[in-house]
Amino acid sequence: MPKLAWMPFGAGHRSCIGGSLALSEARTVLATLVQSFQLELALASAGPSGIHNEDGSLDVHYVFTIVTYPKGLTIRVKKLA
Q1: What percent of the chain has pLDDT over 70?
Q2: How far apart are CA 25 and CA 41, in angstroms?
Q3: Is residue 46 one of the residues assigned to a domain?
Q4: CB 80: neighbour CB atoms within 10 A?
């Protein structure tokens, strides 16, 4: 991927005014989710997103905008007791 190809909030004097707030909120949401749910990498053959498993977990397919995982990852989400 070319350098600076993905810049979600722009750069320089015309960058997004809410970029810092958005990143701060994302960290807060992630920290809250990690405390309440167990997240684990599911097998690629686990099926489409939104599949409820017998153990009560949910498989979520998410496409990250990074070169390492161009087709996305499937994450298994299970609520902690």
Answers
A1: 67
A2: 24
A3: yes
A4: 8
